Amino acid sequence: MSFVECKWLLDSFFNGLELLRLIQGVNTYLSSHCLRRDTFSLPATISMISAARERSMLIKEQIGLLTDAVTKTELLMRHSPTNYLEVLTAQQALLAARQTEVQCRYDEIAGIITLYHALGGGR
Question: Distance between CA 31 and CA 35 in Å, rounded?
């Protein structure tokens, strides 16, 4: 199996297709090119990428809800006896969600880079 074929399998995975074929193809490629497989776990890396993407989607929903919460809390502060501390608390929750989103994106990119290096890229 050539590197181009493995890249095609990798692209198929990232489009949500043929995960099993990707694992088999990469394992064949790794074993035929004598890469150090003991330092690389394909299923764990793919799981890490998938989990990061799923978390990222959930966090985006949470960010949307928290953005609405901040807006509504600011409106409450203007038109009722709500104090500024509640606005700050809502903004803090939004910031924490955004930081989590960045961490999820970092985890996804780190997994992709690990997979890329295991396929012989960047050498």
Answer: 7
pLDDT tens column, 22-75? 555 555 555 554 444 445 577 777 888 888 888 899 999 999 999 999 999 999
Q: Is the dihedral of CA 19, 45, 30, 119 positive or negative?
A: positive
| pTM (predicted TM-score) | 0.63
Taking Cα atoms as reference points, which of 92, 87, 94 lies closest to residue 72?
A: 87
- State the DSSP code for 123: -
pLDDT tens-digit map of 84-95 = 998 999 999 999
How many C-beta atoms lie closer than 10 Å to residue 31's C-beta? 11
Statement: residue 119 has pLDDT above 70: yes
Note the residue count of the chain: 123
Whole-angstrom Cα distance, residue 91 to residue 68?
11
Non-local (6+) Cβ contacts of 22 within 8 A are 9, 10, 12, 13, 46
